[in-house]
Predict the structure.
Amino acid sequence: MSSTEFKPSASTTVWLARHGEAHNPDNVLYARLPRIGLTPEGRRQARALADTLRSRPLVAVYSSQLLRARHTAATILGAHPELGRVRQDSDLIEVRTAWQGEPLEDLEKIDWDFYTNPREPGDDSLQAIQNRMQRWLRRMLKRHPGQEVVGVSHGDPILILVGGLTGLALDPRHIFPKPYIDTGVLYRMEFARDGTCWDVTLLVPHAQAAA
């Protein structure tokens, strides 16, 4: 979708950011592991997100409850102290998978596709993730019509939501780009009054800041 299209009146803008680079010295799939914070580069990425959104009329900052997302969201909130607090939302959380904690080299053997290769019955499916991300989005459109909000989430949930909005099939081969999106990226999604998405734009604030 092109960002050069005419913006309808009363459009709702939903920003969706991937958290900054995570501290992962053991090189494992950290998924929902606790106490995974940001690296110095991750903190720089979070500041770039905050700078990009500083001039926007945000009315709320939402975040996954995982530490790396909360730290990123708190940095964004620092540019909008009038909003008071980060609102944690469990629908924005990372994928649940029993591959969690496994070495990244093992994930490479399955091409990072733990949806086609689940290890336990309770592992998230693509459909389950899409359902909860769409639920979060519907909540934003209902709570904040005609306004701007930002959510901080994780790579796969973001790509699954964006893929659905842009008409991609719910299939790992189509939804997940190669190379994968970087940490600290930002999607801007524009919605008409009736909830129709008329624009999706990908921004990479930390690359722009370093240029």
Observations:
- Strands lie at 12-18, 58-63, 86-88, 148-153, 186-191, 197-203.
- The CA atoms of residues 42 and 171 lie 29 Å apart.
- The domain at 12-210 is CATH 3.40.50.1240 (Rossmann fold).
